[in-house]
Amino acid sequence: MADGSLTARRQEIALLRRLEERILWLASWTIHNANHLRESRDGLKVGGHQASCASMTTLMTALYMKALRPQDRVAVKPHASPVFHAIQHLFGRQTLDNLKRFRALGGAQSYPSRTKDIDDVDFSTGSVGLGVAVTAFASLAQDYLAARGSVKPEAMGRMISLLGDAELDEGNIYEALIEACKHDLRNTWWIVDYNRQSLDATTKDRMFTRYGEIFEAAGWTVETLKWSKRQREAFERPGGKALKAWIETAPNDLYAALSYQGGAAWRERLTADLSGDAAALALVASYKDVDLGELMTELGGHCLETILEAFERASRDDAPRFFIAYTVKGLRLPFQGHKDNHAGLMNPTQIAELRERLGVVEGEEWDALSGLSSAERTALKGLVARAPFAAAVERNHKAPVVATPSADELLSAVGGAGEQSTQAAFGKVMFDIAARKDEFAGRVVTTSPDVTVSTNLGGFVNRRGVFHRRAHEDVFKRRRIPSAQVWSMGETGQHVELGIAENNLFIALAALGLTAPLFGERLFPVGTLYDPFIARGLDALNYACYQDARFLLVATPSGLTLAPEGGAHQSIGSPLIGMSQPGLDSYEPAFADETAVLMAHAFDRIQAADGSSTYLRLSTRAIAQAERVDAAWRAGVVEGAYWLKRPAPDTRLAVVYCGALAPEALEAHAALLEDEPGAGLLAVTSPDVLHRDWTAAGRSRWTEGAARTSTVERLLADLPREAGLVTLIDGAPTALSWLGSVRGHRLRALGLETFGQSGDLPDLYGKYRLDAEAVLDACADLLA
């Protein structure tokens, strides 16, 4: 490097160091203000993780001010959110008012949130590990779009995760790592703040080399940023090798304790342990206490030169990178290295000492550049303005609305006669979509955790193929071995086949469901899995919905009706999961035509401004289809319920059913008509949508000052108040038992409250009281 370039580089590093100090200050002050200065009306600790912020500040400064480009996307370590908000404030993307309201209503969020923060959040984080894994699937989604020419080569971004080393204990990271290896992952950086401390203690020493080995085995390039420039220079001096060896073999807890105690403690311990090495002792003696403390704690993750060199190397290719950046948790703060520092907060005296040390003028704490000369302020503002990431580029895209199939079009795919299951109807609709030549069909992408065939997605995949960046030959087809699965694999495929890890399914749906805002290209993701195993990926499903990712989730088969498979496969609580999950409309149709109508509705909801994702709980049970005399039932299917048999004004009973138990409800209702000729039969397609509408209507009476009648109130108004309801669902009876509260009807709720077992439907429905006889017994009880 020429002398002029070297000088310019040094000047830039010096400016970056100055800026990094001010980012640390603003993040620390934001937390301090929230905990010590802002009025506390409830007496609760606000929190904010000053130590976790301090260990990430250098890494984030280097990333955002030098390495990051507008097309890159970042999942920020949750506990470093104040650093993120401080940096965004410097870019003019976060307001001072929001910093002052950090962790308060409407202010900067505790953890970066796509939907709650106003600044440039790419991926919500908070549930540790999930924000890491989503970047891998976002890279896969970007490759999927790039294969279709929707993301140009020059616009390809890196999907970057900033994570704490304790997050590496999360199993979902390794599930994602395996899937990433299968899909030939690229353009992904995971940057680990390796401070060797978790919430409760220091981490185990034996993990010293294991993480790198794991990622290298998965095909990642591992960059270990262990030593700072200052340390490398010291190691070159006489006695330096011994000092380096001491640090490398020091237990994590001892290193952390000495970091907290400072230079004098370092000197005492090093002098004792290196007593037989005169050169090493002379090296230690050459430093003052404060300088020795800085030498021993300024690791690679705190050295801008080291970090920038590593980022520059990584930018030369698209190989996935795993950076292990050694840091000290809480560096430069009074509790650096202390094992209890995770939730630690500086007191007023300590924050004042930090302010004085950094040269911030008292009373100007919210000015990140306070106390600097005019020349320094100009230089630092110029540095921020020149950052590639500061470019005025639209990063939160709005994708054009795509014409989706109408309900009539999808109804034609399922037909109306004979016996059908809702799962089979889903497969027919997807097969029909695969045959379409329109833009919508080209934007449908399906995915499944190794249950593609058993959830009736096979026909779609036969027509549309499996996505992979490298084409793979179907050996069975070439060798003329008959198979129902004719799956071509290559860049044009529209199905992403996953291993049997439900967590990966939901994180993949999160990434595919965010392509519109992230890349400006709308996809219509459809994911399938077995209904009982929603619970295995529930954290990731919640994470996807929290970000407002949009997709259609099809869970099938479901309930006790999956009879021969036994209790481990028979879902119970999933209707309640659907009801309780924000951002997800949950439906359980009984008939094929209902399934088709709901699929058309779900595709509309994916791209509606006030839309959401949709969950269809389906069944493999083939049942006789309902006879329709008009199309009035369609609105009720979407709204959550409709009268299959409208009650007489003076009836004493109505049967309410949901999903695959429609035949039992119909049989019981037919028998009931002998004694109660006016009995009603209510088809519920969504306890979720019904309940949400009912509670919203109730709130509107006192929050909006306007009375509104909900769907379920309107429907149940057809029944006298003294009438009784018997509800029936192949799942937790609680999903429907609330109906008695709507208008005060007496109610008996039938459903599944214990684990099932293997058997056929007559035996199991009889044993668990889900048959027509149980419905009639409940009706008799109400009339007694």
Structure write-up:
This protein has 34 helices and 20 strands. The chain has 784 residues and is of the alpha/beta class. The protein has a six-stranded parallel β-sheet with strand order 10-7-11-12-14-13, sandwiched between helices. Strands 1-2-3-5-4 form a five-stranded parallel β-sheet, sandwiched between helices. A five-stranded mixed β-sheet has the order 16-18-17-19-20. Strand 17, helix 28 and strand 18 form a beta-alpha-beta unit. Helix 2 packs across helix 14, helix 18 crosses helix 26 and helix 22 packs parallel to helix 24. The longest helix has 35 residues. Component of the pyruvate dehydrogenase (PDH) complex, that catalyzes the overall conversion of pyruvate to acetyl-CoA and CO(2). It catalyses: N(6)-[(R)-lipoyl]-L-lysyl-[protein] + pyruvate + H(+) = N(6)-[(R)-S(8)-acetyldihydrolipoyl]-L-lysyl-[protein] + CO2. It comes from Caulobacter hibisci.
Strand arrangement, largest sheet?
10-7-11-12-14-13
| Helical segment count | 34
The main β sheet shows up as: 6 strands, parallel
Secondary structure: helix percent: 40-55%
Contiguous uncertain segments of 5+ residues: none
Task: Please state the overall shape, judged from the principal axes of the Cα atoms.
Answer: elongated
- How many strands? 20
Provide the gyration radius in Å. 31 Å
Distance between the termini: 95 Å
Strand content: 5-15%
Mean pLDDT: 94
| Structural class by sheet pairing and helices | alpha/beta
